[in-house]
Write a structure and sequence with these properties.
Oligomer: heterodimer
Distance between the termini of chain B: 35 Å
Strand content of chain B: 15-25%
Radius of gyration of chain B: 13 Å
Number of strands of chain A: 24
Helix content of chain B: 40-55%
Chain lengths: 635, 129
Amino acid sequence: MRTRIGTRVIVAVSLATALTAGLTVVLVVRTHRSDQVAEVARSVEQLSETIKSSTHYDMLENRRESLHRQIEAIGRQEGIEAVRVFNREGRIVFSSEPSEIGSAVDKRAEACDACHAEGRPLERLPQSARSRTFTAADGHRVLGTINPIHNEPGCASAACHAHDSRDTVLGVLDVSVSLADVDRNIARSQRRMAGLTAGALAASGLLLWWLNRSLVLRPVSALVAATRRIAEGDLTVTVPITAQHELGDLARAFNEMTRRLGEAQRQLTQADKLASVGRLAAGVAHEINNPLTGVLTFASLLLKQAEDPAVRDDLTVIVRETKRCRDIVRNLLDFARQSPPSRQSVDLNEVVRRAVTIMMNQLSLDRIALTLDLSPELPPLLADGAQIQQVVVNLLVNAADAVATGGGEIRLATREARLAAWGHAAIRGATCARGCDLLDPEVRMAGLPSIRVTRNCAGRQDLLHLDPVYGRFNQVAAHPCDEDALASYQCPRCRVSLHEPSLRCERCAAPLFSVQVPGLDRILWCTRNGCHFSHWPPMDAAEPRRVAEIVVEDTGRGIAPSDLPHLFEPFYTTKGAGGTGLGLAVSWGIVEAHGGTLEVATEEGRGSRFTVRLPLERAAAEASPIGEGAAPAAA
Amino acid sequence: VNAEVLVVDDEEVVRKAVERILAQDGLRVVAAGTAREALAHPALADCRLVLCDLMLPDLSGVEVLRSLRERRPGLPVVMMTGYVTAANASRALEQGAAGFLPKPFDESELRAAVAGALAERGGREERLP
C-alpha cells in the first residue's frame, strides 16, 4: 500500500505522543485519587479521635443521653455518612442513625474484617488498615474508619458499670464519610486532562501536518513534478529554491544537474549532428570535387574558345553553377568541422600568412589589392592554428566578395591590444540569490542574452531587460519608468527581492540591487532609474586584458543595417545563390570557443571592418564565466 | 622536349584537365595515377613543377611532398585536394608546399596557381614577407 512519508511520520509521532500522554494522564489521575482519599482518611481519623476524646467523660460517667445527642449532632454534619459505636459483642450501642441502635453486626462483616479476619481479634491496628472504602446502596463510594476503644483504668473502675479489667478492647467507634465529592473532583480533573491531552495531540498533529506540507511536501512535489518533466524530455525545468535547508540544497543540486544534462544533451545532439554531417560532407566532397573539376575546367576551356554568344551564355551558366556546387560543398565541410579548439602555442602572423597563401589565387584573379600590416611584436598565443586560419580565410572571402562587387582593397592587420573590461566584459550567467537563472535568450542585446528582472516602478510591474555587457546601460521594458523614480526589483521566477539592503549607490545614495554572477561575485546597479551607476567588484579591480587582434578591413559595399542582427546566424546570407551563410557562423563559433570575440563595424557603401580578439593570457583563454560583448555595431 | 609539369592524381578526369589546360600554355605535362608511380617517374629528374593530390590511393600527398622535398628541395609542389580542410592545408604548407589548389578549380585558377609557383620557384620561405 502506498502511504505518503508525511502521513506515516504524522501517524507514528501522534501514536507515540498519544501513548505517552495517556500513560501520564492515567498515572497522574491515579496518584491524585490516592492522595485525595488519603487526605480524607486522615481527616476522618482526626474526626474519629476527636469524637473519642470528647465523649470520653460521658462514657465514663455513663451519660447515655448526652452521648446520643453528640453522636447525632456529629452525624448530621455534611459529608458524614454515619457515626456508630459497637460494643464488644458487635451490637450497635450508639449511632447517628437511631434506628440502627441495638442491631448486631456479624464479626465477619467488612468493617470488622481488619481485626477479626484471623479468629482471635487483633488489639491494635496500623492507621492505614483501619480505613476501608465501600460502595453505598445508592452507588456512591464511602470511606469508613474504625477506631477501637481500649479498656483504660478508669473504665474498669467506674461506678456505673463494670468492664472486666481483663478485656483490652471494649468496643469500636466507626465513622464513615461520603467520597462523592472527592470522586466528583477526580472525575472532573480526569475529564479536563483528557481534554487538554486531546487538544495538545490535535494541535501537534496540525503543526506536524503544516510543517510537513510546507517543509517537505511542497518542495518534494515541485521536485517530483520537475523530474516528470525531465523524464518527458524537457530539460529547461528549474525548481524554485524556497528553502535554505537540505531540500533547498537538493533543489539547487537538481537545477545544476538539469542544467548540465541539458548542456550535455545539446552538445551530444550537436556533436552527433555535426559528426554525421561531417562524414557525409567529407564523403561528398571527396566524391564530387573530382568530377566537378572536370566539368569546371572543360567548361571554362570551351567558354574561352566559343565564338557564338548563345553558346557562351550557356557555358557561363555551367561554369557559374559548378562553382556554386563547389562553394556549397566547401561550406558544408566548414560547418561540419566545428570542433573544440586544440590549443597550442602559435605565431598568429604565421597563421595569417598561411590563410593569405590559400586566398592569394582568388585575390589576384579578382585584382584585389591586399595590404598586410602584421605586428612583429605579437607574442605567441594559445590557439588552434588551423581553426584561426579558417576564420581569417572566411573573413578574407567575405572581404573579397564585398570588394569585388564594389571595387577596392583589403587591409589585413595583426596587433596586440589592451582591453579594459568596461564596455566589453559580458556575463554568461546570472542568477538571483536563490539560484534562478536570469539570462533570457529570447531578448538579446547585441547578440547576447539579456538579464531579465521584474521591476516595480510607480506601482506598475514590468519585466526589465538589462544589458549583459558590463559598463553599458541598454534597457528594454514594456513600460517607461521615470528617471528619478526609485524602482524595486525582484527575481521574475521566485519573487525574491534583488535589493542589497546594506549597500548604497556611490553617486546618489539610493539603494542598490544586484544579480549574482556564478564564480564572479555579483553586479550591482542603482535602483534609481536614471542614475546609471553600476559596480562589478572583480571587474572594477581587474587590470586591462591583453588581447591579440586580427583586423580584416575592406573598402567594399558594407553591410546593410537590416542584415546586421543576423550576421552570425547560420544559413543567413546576403550573397543570394553565391553564399551558404555558414562562413561567419563558423568563424563566430571558433572565436567564441577560443574565449575571444568577433566584432563588426560597417558602413553601407564604404566598407566593413571585422576585428577578431583573442585573449593572450592563458587563464582568460580557458572557459570563463564571462565573455566579451561582441557587438556588431554600425560605424 | 623534357616534361615541365608532373601531375599526380588518381582521377583521370583531373589529369586530363590539367594536361589540356597547361598544354595550351605550351607546357609539357606528364601524369601519374599513384604516389609510387609518381616517385618513380623519370620526369622527376628535371621537371619544373609538381601538382599533387592530397589523397592518393597508396600514400598521402603530404608524404609524396615530403619525399620530393628531400630529393629536390627547390622543386615547387602545389597540393590539390577535393577535401579542403584548414588542417590538411596548413599541414601541406608546413611541409613546404608552394601552393594550395582546392578542387574543383577552373582553368584560370589552375593557371594562376601554376604561374605563381613557377614564378617563385625558390619556395614559399623566400616568397612571403
